[in-house]
Amino acid sequence: MAFGTSSTSNTSASGKPERSPREIAITLLARREYSRAELASRLERKDVPADEIDACLNALAEQGLQSDTRFAESFIRSRIFRGQGVRRIESELRQRGVDSATYAAALAEVVAQEEVDWCELACEALSRRFSTPGDSPKERAKRERFLANRGFDFDQIRYALSML
Where is the RecX first three-helical domain (predicted)? Predict the structure, then answer.
């Protein structure tokens, strides 16, 4: 027997050693932040039993290796950089399993740190895509839909159109 191997090692049908839920989660977290719900979903797809998933994710959270707050802050920053508004960011975080309280706290923290002006962000997003506010009502509506789909509210859209 070779050094460091065991005759009772866990192997898959393909002959590869099976990885523990923790190893799978750590590999994922090494690439980017994940929400707890995203990690749970990924582990479920690997046929990890639900009780092992919970135990693994609880341990990772206790050790500070996984945090929905840290994930939400990172996600919010990346979406602001892309020129997205609050509504879209909130919707995407909800889809990724982040609760409202975590989202609200993360948003407040990022807005304070980055000094985000949502109206100016709407202006920047609009100016990257369009050079004029639109000559016809149809053209203005197109720009309004663009900003609304980006997650900006009515006041932010109106401000951005007035500044273009």
Answer: 22-58
